Fold:
Amino acid sequence: MRTRKLVLSGLLVSIGVLASHIIVIPINVAKAYPLQHTINVIGAILLGPGYAVANAFLISLLRNILGVGSILAFPGSIFGAMLAGIAYKQFKKTYAAGIGEVIGTGLIGSLAAFPLSKFLLGSETGAFFFIPPFIISSLGGAVLGVLVVKSLKNLKRGVLLK
Structure:
C-alpha cells in the first residue's frame, strides 16, 4: 500500500508542476494556480494529510526552482492541503476536504502570505489583500477536486479508492 501511495503522490506532484500553467491568475506579486488546489483536494482524500502537505510543498518547491512560481506558493498551498486532509480524515466526506482547502488556503494561507510578501518581496499590500484572490482560486480548485474524486468513485474502480 505504501508503494501505491508513493507512486500516486509522485504522479500528483508531476501533474501539479506541469499542469499548473494551464490556468494562472496573476495577483500583484503572486500568481494563483487553481489546479494546485485541485491536486491538494485529490491528494488529501486519496492519500491523507501527510502526503497532501508533502505534495503541496514539493509542487511549490519545484515551481520555484523552475522559476514559474513565487514564494507565496508555500503558504498558499500547504495550509490548504493540511486542512483538506484533516477535514476529510475527520468527517469522511469529499466536500469536507474542499471546505478545508478553501479555509486553509483562502484564510490561513492568505494571511501567512502577507509577511512573506511584505518582508521578502517588498510589496506594500495590506494584511487582508490576498484573501479574496486566494479564496477565489482555492474555491475553483476545490470544486474541481471534489468533482474529480466523485467521478473516480462513480467509476467503481477500486484501484485508487477503496
